[in-house]
Amino acid sequence: MTETPQVQPTDALLRALHEAPAPVPLSFELFPPQSRKAAQRLDETASRLAPVAAHGFSVTMGAGGSDRSGTVATSKRIMESTARPVTAHLISAGMTQEETLATADRLCAAGVTRILALRGDRPKGATEDTPQGFAHAAGLVAALKKRHPVDLAVAAYPEKHPEAEDLDTDIDHLKEKIDAGADQAICQFVLNPEAYGRFLDRCGAHGIDVPIIPGLMPLDGWVRVRRFALATGTSVPNWLDRMLSEACETDEVLPLVGMAATLEQARRLIAYGAPALHVYTLNRWPLPLALAECLSAGRASFQHI
Description:
The chain is α/β, with parallel strands linked by helices. It has one domain: TIM Barrel. The protein has eleven helices and eight strands. It has helices at 15-19, 36-49, 68-82, 97-109, 137-147, 167-179, 193-205, 222-232, 238-247, 254-271, 286-303, and strands at residues 26-30, 57-59, 86-91, 114-118, 151-156, 184-189, 212-216, 277-280. An eight-stranded parallel beta barrel has the order 1-2-3-4-5-6-7-8, surrounded by six helices. Helix 5 (137-147) links the parallel strand 4 (114-118) and strand 5. The longest helix has 18 residues, at 254-271. The chain is globular.
């Protein structure tokens, strides 16, 4: 008697991943180097990741625009060396509105036409005399749209911004940024893919229809990642914390478990509807590149079965 083959349930979480016609595009976040050695490491990271960076790179800016000159120079450098698009962060807090827009002028003059518009947090040590910049990111988005023909991204928080009263109020603020002219939203890194899936549903209920791209943090440095997650209000699933905390006890095992956990996070985010993934590299290339290769190879092999 021939056994009837098992058919995967149509509502299985990862079915969407296996049936996707092409790999989900990736972008990679970098930060300006502070030394010659760090610049060399950044150049190698950008070069290694460029072939798999379908959505290019982003370059951060310190609080209060503390390294805005580095952001402009690094964005231009990476764009020219990799021939990939670059999204530059633009933080308004700590600068006047005029300084903020002048920085945008410098970015556009350097050929950078993608900007992640952020109000940002007040710099450490800020006083009453510290410039406030734009009180809300929506105002910055509107001003940039009037000033330059740029593609604008804004920040989104699947588990709400720490200052927000509740998630629905925070989504209303996101809607204001979209209505002001933002083309897409990039999320703070997500450790609980289910929270991202629920966030997409609630954004849709608020009339938000632009791409909302989740941030993905490599999990090979769990102690640091966990500490940052707790400080920013990002929930940590018990299974993930237990697995990586135990792996931390063995130095040789942690990078391997971290890679497996990062890949699993990516697959779940994609299955929940992520149109792309934004990978926080910390200016390191091995795990992000391995992730890109695994995602691409996994889909290719499935499609040829």
